[in-house]
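Sat 14:20. Reprocessing the chain from the morning session after the first attempt stalled halfway. Input below, unchanged.
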Amino acid sequence: MTTEILEDQQAATEEETLEVPLAELRPALEAVLMVADQPLDDATLATAVGYPVPEVVEALTALAEEYDESERGFELRNVAGGWRYYTREAFAPVVERFVLDGQQARLTQAALETLAVVAYKQPVSRSRVSAIRGVNVDGVMRTLLTRGLVEEAGTDHETGAHLYRTSSYFLERIGVSSLDDLPELAPLLPGMDDFDDEQEVVTAPAPEAGAEPGPDTPSDTMDE
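Finished this time. Tokens:
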């Protein structure tokens, strides 16, 4: 009886999985792997694309073989218990030249502002940098990471978000020996408490029409 129940549960799970697919298996796997920033295991990929694990493993293996046979500039590897795209070793010099050439270009104003926030608020998460700057900084952070000016510094124990800090290369580039030598700019950068206060002001309910302003209620009428 127990065996029958387990078989029924497994069959139900497979049916639920097969109802999820929205696209062909191989293109769907390629799309997910393209945006992955860490190796993804079989189960995670199966959940993402909505196919059974055995079919996903078979498709991943076939994709890896296809890339090898066609000698693509990238390859699909199963490393550390997960699948991820990697640059093919034969093209490493091309990638290295591209990255080094990119490091010679001047940083944009957005990159400089983001780097300043990281320098004075480190270790800091991307979301907090975005909150301080008021814009999405994902692209800029990737640029700073690529150039070696910023590096990962673990994760936040409360939120699990990745934290970032400036690198030794950053200190070398600006000509200081430690972060203690940076100019005293930290007090001028707003903290998260300041943003919370501003949010409270913005979301505070407006006084009802005709109501007399209280002693703490700001008035638009200037004193005579």
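Residues 2-19 form the longest helix (18 residues).
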